[in-house]
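FW: tagging you since you asked about this chain on Friday. Here's the raw sequence from the shared folder, copied in full. Didn't touch anything.
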Amino acid sequence: MARVALVVHPDRSQAASAADAAEQWLTSRGHEVVRVLGTGDSKTSELPGLADFDLAVSLGGDGTMLRTVSLASAKGVPVLGVNLGQLGYLTEVEPTALEPALARFLAGEYTIEERMTLEVSLQCGNEEPLVVTALNEAVVEKTVPGHTVRVELCVAGRPFVTYAADGVLVSTPTGSTAYNLSARGPLLSPQLRVLVVTPVSPHMLFDRPLVLEPTEWIRLEVLEPRPAVVVVDGETVCELRPGDVVCCREGPVPARFVSFGERDFHAILRAKFGLADR
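HL: got it, structure written out here
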């Protein structure tokens, strides 16, 4: 008997319908199913006994997938993504293929694709230090419209540059197709193990992204005169005052994605961006 967690987008009827069908299919074959809403506070939410689950199924878009990974990755639980969103960079199957995919997983006909994660350590004012895990990115960004925020970047403990920008983001290779893409950062193969630092709308001559090896951990300190906010995988974590610090390094545990064949990253990019040969 397998234990399967279904992480369901709360506002999409198609996700609920797909979860109903998957739950019926699994329970009729003697498997245990737990349903979880794919939203909430990633700092505190956790599935009880998650280490005992054999599979977590994400039913939504890439946002739900990020939520599922945040619940599952620390315990090493593999994640199967079902695309019910618009982009679907991270998802593996379409809703109509869910039951065959579950059958293949239960039969052992799958592989595991590991992706680098980001460990984000936060010191927000006088609060207790907080550590969260990201699959895509952590962003320190402005809170005052029409003004930049000043952020000092240190690489592996050594000062590098002070940015005046709308924000500074630190991305994984998987996250290179997320906010990093919008900020004109580089697109990276998701199998790489690197850290990407990309300034967001910098008001300075040095505006190039940095690609660093995983041991070159990142320290971001908010400087006077304005506050900032830190956002991890699309969720606001806390407000940062001048002097507050965010540190980013390679996560100790990778995300584990269920795959049923080699994912062609470049073909996915071509399809998502509508690229065609001239």
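FW: The helical segments are 13-27, 62-72, 98-106, 179-182, 265-273.
HL: agreed, and The domain at 118-250 is CATH 2.60.200.30 (Tumour Suppressor Smad4).
FW: great, closing this out.
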